[in-house]
Amino acid sequence: SQKIEQNSEALNIQEGKTATLTCNYTNYSPAYLQWYRQDPGRGPVFLLLIRENEKEKRKERLKVTFDTTLKQSLFHITASQPADSATYLCARATGNQFYFGTGTSLTVIP
Amino acid sequence: NAGVTQTPKFRVLKTGQSMTLLCAQDMNHEYMYWYRQDPGMGLRLIHYSVGEGTTAKGEVPDGYNVSRLKKQNFLLGLESAAPSQTSVYFCASSYLLGGQIYGYTFGSGTRLTVV
To answer: I want to staple B17 with a disulfide (CB 3.0 to 4.6 A). Which of A25, B13, B39, B93 is the partner?
Structure first.
C-alpha cells in the first residue's frame, strides 16, 4: 500500500518559534510530495510541492525538505504566528492519485 | 473565479435513500476527484477522472458511482445510502505541470449525515 504517515496528531508551539511537522512514507519513494493546509470546516489548500530530486523548497516563511534515505518530508513554518494555526496535510503522488496523511493539528500560542 | 464549487453543502439522508453530489470547476482542469474525510482516517479517494467521459475507482469506491459527462462537472452518486457513508465529501481538481499532477484545488465540502 502507498502508506503515508504524519507522526504527530497535534503540535503546540509558542508564537515566533519554528514549527516542524513530519511526514513519513513507506515502500518506494514517490516522485513528489505535497503539503496542504486545512482550516476547520473548509477544504484543504495547496501550499507546496517538492520533487524527489529536490532537497528543499521554500515559499515565504514555509520550507519543505524531502529525504529519500529517511523516507521523510519535513515541513517548517518559521516565525510562527497564531494565524498559522490549522491542520497540515502531506500527500504522496502515485500515478494519477494522491494519498493523504491524517494531518497534524498545529496550534500557535500567542 | 469560483474555483471548485460543491453542492449541496449539507444534507441529511435516511438509510436507503439516494442522492447526487455535484462538483463544478471553472479552471478547465482535466483531472477531478472525489474524496471523503473521516476523523482519524484522513482523506480517502472514492473515484476520480482524468478527462471528460472517463472515470476510475479509488481507494474506497463501494456504494458510490460517478459520472463526468462534461469536463467542468463531476457527479458523485449514492444509490442506497448507509450510515457508514456519513462523512464530509470533498471534490478536487487539478492539471498536469511538467508531466506531474499539480496541487489540488479543493471545494469547500459537503457534510452528509445518513440516519
So the answer is: B13
pLDDT in tens, B26-40: 999 999 999 999 988
Closest CA to A6 of A62, A65, A64, A88: A88
Rounded to the nearest 5 degrees, what angle is found at the Cα of A48, between the Cα atoms of A42 and A51? 140
Q: Which residues contact B9 (CB under 8 A, 6 or more apart)?
A: B108, B109, B110, B111
What's the gap in Å between the CA of A1 and the closest CA on chain B? 10
**A44 interfaces chain B, CB cutoff of 8 Å:** yes
Question: Reading across the β-sheet that carries B4-7, which strands appear in turn?
Answer: B4-7, B19-25, B73-78, B64-67
Cross-strand partners of A76: A20, A63
Residue found by looking up cell 469547500 in the block: B108
B39 touches chain A (CB under 8 A): no
- Cβ of B101 within 8 Å of Cβ of A98? The answer is yes
Q: Touching check for A7 and chain B: CB below 8 Å? A: no
pLDDT digits (tens, 9 = 90+) for A51-91: 888 989 999 999 999 998 898 999 999 999 999 999 999 99
Q: CA A80 to CA A108: how far, in whole Å?
A: 7
